[in-house]
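Journal club side-thread
Mid-discussion, someone asked how the predicted structure for our own chain would compare to the paper's figures. Pasting it here so we can look after the session.
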Amino acid sequence: MLMEGFAGALSPMNLLWVIIGCLLGTAVGVMPGLGSSMAVALLLPMTFALDPTAAFIMFSGVYFGGLFGDSTMAILMNTPGQASAIASTFEGHRMALNGRAPQALATAAIGAFIGGIVSSFIVVFLAPTLAELSTAFGPAEYFALALFAFVATSSVVSDSVFKGLASLIFGLGIATIGIDSVTGTERFTLGAPQLFDGISLVTVTVAILALGEVFFVASRARRDKVNLETRSAGRPWLTGTEFKEAAPAWARGTIIGLPFGVIPVGGSEVPTFLAYSTERALDKRRKDPQFGDKGAIRGLAAPEAAGNATTGMAMGALLALGLPVSATAAIMLAAFRQYGIQPGPLLFDRNPELVWALLASFFIAMIVLLFINLPFAQLWAKLLLIPNHYLYSGIALFCGLGIYATSGAVFDLLMLLGIGVVALIMRRYGYPLAPLMIGMVLGPLAETSLRDALLSSVGDFSILVSSPITWSLYAVLAIFIAVSIITAVRGRRKHLTSQLETIDA
């Protein structure tokens, strides 16, 4: 069946649609404030003139191409197209600013290829078995998963646990603004009708990671003189040493990302943050830690592989169960329904030619993207040669245009400006941004899951630890906290010892 799918997907017209989809997805993905989900949504009306197989083959190219476009802007401009690329900004942008932009983009392209190819193979051969995994997760399991992500991220990404927790709490606070979905009560809206629906994740993401970076660079323009000629220098491929360094992270990221494709937690945000946190925790145990000012290749490789592994599995969950586990998958579900097709277990029997051609197109899209993006890595990196005053003013303009295009409200532009100033203050005083973003992304999931669990148990808190999955998650969390405390105590003791030796000398 898969071979028949390749026969259909490799027909000249369908192959052309894959290539067009990859190019369009990448082009939309590199625009600040937009992303892969926006690319699919914008192109949805344009595909109704095509037959269903050609339309969804094109969508697969747009989907995966948009993800790479998201990562491209996250690495080069610190401006992720959507939340799934946030984790790639932390080390990827540092690599770009230290003259390793082509290598960072090559790392992202190879990681996306590995994660996508592995997930596509698993979707083809193990989709029914893995789909059953999603039924084992209830509200208590989701809450445990969110709590694990909160603690792991806030304790790892900052040298100060206090600053990490403060950033996390700020993100959770933003997530609670708006009308409570259960009681209908206004929360932290200050009576402003514009806040009744809450603050958009897109607005917060663009303000914190893009506009905040613009303000920070502008505030230090006279102090920091960057040599633009060397920032994007280098080869658009990885040396053997770099490949060897990134390979374990690609593998770990792929393993972390695979299960999340069939667990409806909102997309690839959670696994990318978990993959980043895992690599940072492992890096602290090395003799020569790589995370920091220069950028660690493992800190970019793992989130990229995790994000694309999740995406491939999410498409499998959509086809096999009719379960959209991300915003883009939800848009794809709407597209299926526009053609009168209902994804689910019967789809493989009723429309086998469509399903297997679409699955085959996943493999083709991955290969096309690898061949398109590796040679163009150095070309994309030349965006960094634009003088700062042009580059960052352009980013600020596109931030405003992207937010206004998604909402059409002046209030959101004012909110963008206000949160951008907060981001400047956080950068100035060393508060990490990752806990804020993960608090914003997972806050609603944690709150809803906690409420649902307590409602179903009539207020009995023991339901939160009533299943083997929750026991496992909390046990891993306890081990993680213990290791973090021991590492911090040893680091503090080593620091005091070196100070005493200096005083004695």
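Post-session note: Confidence is low (pLDDT under 50) at residues 226-233.
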